[in-house]
């Protein structure tokens, strides 16, 4: 149960909020003098409010936020530093904490206080500013997402998600489909059960819709299909044109050589400083496992896969991607709303938009390579090395090549990988695709969209860790995020006229300022739709990504 | 609130146990089918027992044990890896977890279940084997230690103990007594308040006695004074003889040179493997902070101060000390009693006995240096280097020199450092020494016992981290542990006749077997007194340490 991933679009809940908005059964007692523990001095969560029930709720959600932060630390340690022998007991500890959080969130007093606070809000709307209003809504949503879910399922979910990481890593040795199938079936079954309980609470009729909403509040299957179909049509037009254009050009000079890992990590950390990541509240580390996302606003330790010494572009790509996530996390409301639901990020699509804006959109501009190139020459001892020229780096990073591996995919073909996974997981969850037919469906899908054929399951349906850790409904976030990033970029170019020049000088201060002003600092004050409309003037559209791709790959 | 440090001698509690042993108010319901979470398959804690209340208690204490393990992980991360900016929020998280544990332990149902289980035990003693009996006693003790303590004090204690580490580190720059005084006063005040609540519950009349019992169940001020006075008398006789003897001998060749830190850490880790430390369930790391003790039976990550490259003996000493702690932790009952109170260690004195047995007693035998010397020659490239000869290493590590620094003290003068701290903290807590008079009392004590004078507060009363982290009542454990180690050693020599030869071959298997058989595997099945009597035939006596020192330093 990650707080950051459990909320739903508010619009969906109007009915339920009405339903629970009955007269309170029992009046809460006035709170004793508040004591926020040992965080910074002034907190909105400690501020007096005329609704005593709301004060109680703020305290409860502060503690839930703390539990969530504790789970983050346990999880990062589990995945990066813990000795193997602690595996079983740590699984027990983590799933226990999830259960504790769940029980604390869903205990009877929560509903009573929500009733009471909503009643107060209804009768005295002037006591509620926009932050408190949004905060109470998020509290309600979170409660509704969990209230009818069996605690055993929550514990199982936590356990399976960590076991899944290990299972996936073990599979990389064997690639054994039969073994994977059993585990994936268990994950599908468990996630369906959880979705089913929520569907009943919230009157939603699709399990997959419910799972998607957990990661992306307010995003529907229907909207996703519309956007994806529209982008697919566009790509089917421009992808052959890009292929033809690049076939007529000379290929880039390969940059493969020996790049020692210490220098690479220095580069990665320095680039994160350039984009505005605060190392006082975070760090960047390597791991033999899959990269770990997440962290909290106070402790954003990013983890990327071990550096590949033959190619610095791989770890740089991961670092920029995680760095984009990191500056979003660090920019969320910290001083006044720490731990409160309104201070959370807007979910996976917005999160990926921030990662992909840095990694794919800004991090592959000619200007970025102008900034990077001379520093690379110095760092990697290659004075006037043509492989490290801005032109060659740009060419190398914008080269299109259909392949079977999502992680290695270029910016154009990336969408096909995501679209396939979206359709397959949707059908797996809603039951129209049997797990037995997954490998074949995968191969067919890859062949139909990109004309490539995976040689084995590891290059096919076993390549991603997501389903193993129980993330069904997450994949669309990559493509939606890419679209969103292009839409933000389109506006930023207008509002920061000399953005290109700034990037070529390694100056991201205005870029970060814009992101902070329009996205980070609001937390969940607005819904994703409202935020997008306010920031870019429009709801999410696929056309900006198409425009971006046309400009970069066909102009 | 460390579980490992909160129990008291059972003998003290007979009255109170009687008092709470009234008829239960409300019968607990039968437990649903147990589910131990995701630890190993068979657990005593999951085993059916005719007392349903006891089943509930086992489940509660399993969860308390998990919380304690979680706090261990948060704390280790706090002290070794966390970014600075997370300082305040992590303090909040850790103190919150302590509060949660406290509330869970002291909630009303705990007493009800304890009443009920004790009643069952009284009526059907045959249902209770020795392990269940000891476990229930430890549960009762733990409950009594906390039941009347204000949760705010528990939160404050957790916070102050971490703040104290930082405070102490900052003081190392300034050495400012006035600043230290304020902080230490707050610690004394807080610890007195907690002790006061416990004294009332348990009918104990000395605050310091109460604090000492937290670290060393069953150990009284009176016994400690008797043992310390006896040892002081002995030392006053033999210490001048040792000084005279060593003054007539040639000094050891200094080993100061350059020893790279990677080789040192390899050596330290290898020596831990030699003594039987399991790296599958633990590790050894360096830190810029003070070393971190602790860990759990599943995750024993030891941390020592950053290696000194001019002298490998310093980090080796720390590694052997922490390694002694580590093998004790790892040897506690794991498979069947994990997380249950009966599986805890016996407290600080026994813990230090294990650390000092390895570090000071076995780790400074001529045989140990015989094993070590040729390997050092290879590791540090010093073939036939006389500084690394067994004889010189032995001479170097058994050289007596009075000094102001406890951590650098030799095996003979170490006691004087501990004895001074014991008397000062006893008087600080019981009020007969004012904090204002501490620096002077320290200087006087050092001069009277060892004839040395600290040049400043950092070499004097500010040198240790213990009081800053709120550990009042811990210091005696070092000297009591040293005595205990000598007493164990005395028996081991008889029961493992060729122990010396085994050590010279780097074979600690029989030594570890003896420690496991007599100490580790019992957890808290017996009290310290009972364990000592069973293992060595006698209660704790000072004479074995004197005998050991006479043999090593005067024969």
Give a written overview of the molecule.
2 copies of one chain form a homodimer. In chain A, strands 1-2 form a two-stranded parallel ribbon. The two termini of chain A are 46 Å apart. Chain A has a domain at 3-215: Orthogonal Bundle (Neurolysin, domain 3). In chain A, helix 3 (87-106) packs antiparallel against helix 6 (151-174) and helix 11 (312-331) packs across helix 12. By secondary structure, chain A is mostly helical. Chain A is built from 21 helices and 2 strands. The longest helix of chain A is centred in the N-terminal third of the chain and has 29 residues, at 52-80. The first copy, chain A, is globular. At the A-B interface, helix 2, helix 3 and helix 6 of A face helix 2, helix 3 and helix 6 of B.
Characteristic terms for this protein:
mainly alpha; disordered N terminus; homodimer; two-stranded parallel ribbon; Neurolysin, domain 3; 555 residues
